[in-house]
Structures are given as C-alpha cells and as structure tokens.
Write a structure and sequence with these properties.
Blueprint (H helix, E strand, L loop, with lengths): L1 H19 L15 H48 L7 E6 L12 H13 L3 E4 L5 E8 L3 H7 L8 H10 L13 E9 L6
Antiparallel strand pairs: 1-4, 2-3, 3-4
Helix pairs in contact: 2-5
Length: 197
C-alpha cells in the first residue's frame, strides 16, 4: 500500500513537473520609467518629427500647405511618437502654450504653473503627481527662421495669404507676434502610473 502511495505521488509530481515544461511561461516585462534622459530624447524626437513634416509641407506648398497639414496631423503625429516608445508604456506627448493656436494646446491649471516656472528658469523638469503619474516639462523656444513664417509678426514675418489661412483655420489664434529666441510654450510628457491606466 505504501508503495502505491509513493508511486502515485512520484507520478503525480512528475506529471506536474512535466506539465509546466515546454509551455512558455508568461513574462511580465519590466516597465521602463520616464527619466530626464529618456524625456529629453523624446522631446528631441517629437521636435524633429514635427519639424521634418512641416518642412516637407513648406517646401511642397508654402506656409498655407503647412497650416493645413498641421491642423489635421500635428496631434496624431505626436500620439504616434508617444506610442512608438516600446517599454515606455502609458505615455502621452503634447505641446502647451498660454498663447496657443489650437485650443487643444491650452494649458490646464497644473500646466499653467509649469509654464510659469519654465518661462522663469528655462530649465526642463520632471515631477510626479499624487496618482503616481510622471510629468516632464521642457520649454519650446523659437529657434528657426522658418517658424516665423507662421508664428512671427503679421505683415513683417507672416505674409498676408498665410495670415488669412491662419485666421480661417484657427479663428482664436494667439500664436503670432514671436521673434527668434522667444519662449513659445512647453512640451508636456506624461507617463501614467500602471495603476492609473
């Protein structure tokens, strides 16, 4: 009788052991966390992607073509940059300004505080909120002449046809009157906490 129980336990143990072999065990990959280095790289990638697409449009059809492209594609283009970040899951990227062109870029109350800090210091910063979400804020400064074609001074930098296209596409536009070196707004990267997703 003892022999049968031992044999039964041996066969049962072997079956359990073998049952787990050969089946891939689900892996829980490490979740990469937003940090200063990865945030800076993402801002650079988002900037390069947006500038490259707008430059293509400017070269193909001038500022009016770029305005049409930006109105339709800018937000989804930034979403695609955020979604293409592998292990940086739960990520969103947006541009924010108190002098916004697209009303979707208007700051909320926390972003308004971050904008004021960046306007004073010019230094990017990373912080977490009470829900465990990580926020990275980086300044947007006008550095290229081509930006002035749509964000410069009307009548000086912005041609009449471009100004008319801006007014038609963005009736509440506040994003003109800039010159090179001006603080234009900020990049806001958010990585949602795994528990908040």
């Amino acid at each position: 009788m003892v022999y049968r129980i031992n044999l039964f336990l041996y066969v049962l143990g072997l079956a359990l052991l073998m049952g787990g072999c050969g089946k891939p065990q689900p892996r829980n990959p490490e979740r990469a966390t937003l940090n200063d280095s990865s945030s800076k790289a993402l801002v650079q990638k988002a900037t390069q992607t947006l500038v490259a697409r707008l430059t293509t449009q400017l070269n193909a059809g001038g500022p009016v073509a770029a305005i049409g492209y930006c109105k339709v594609n800018a937000l989804s283009l930034l979403d695609s940059v955020a979604q293409g970040q592998g292990q940086l899951r739960g990520l969103s990227i947006r541009r924010v300004s108190e002098r916004y062109r697209n009303p979707a870029d208007q700051p909320d109350s926390l972003e308004a505080l971050a904008l004021r800090q960046l306007a004073q210091t010019g230094k990017p910063f990373l912080q977490s909120d009470s829900d465990g979400n990580l926020h990275y804020y980086a300044p947007i400064v006008l550095k290229m002449d081509l930006c002035l074609q749509c964000h410069g001074k009307p009548g000086t930098d912005i041609a009449p046809a471009t100004l008319a296209a801006l007014q038609a596409a963005y009736p509440t536009d506040k994003a003109t009157g800039y010159q090179l070196g001006d603080f234009r707004g900020m990049w806001h990267l958010v990585q949602r906490s795994p528990t908040a997703q």
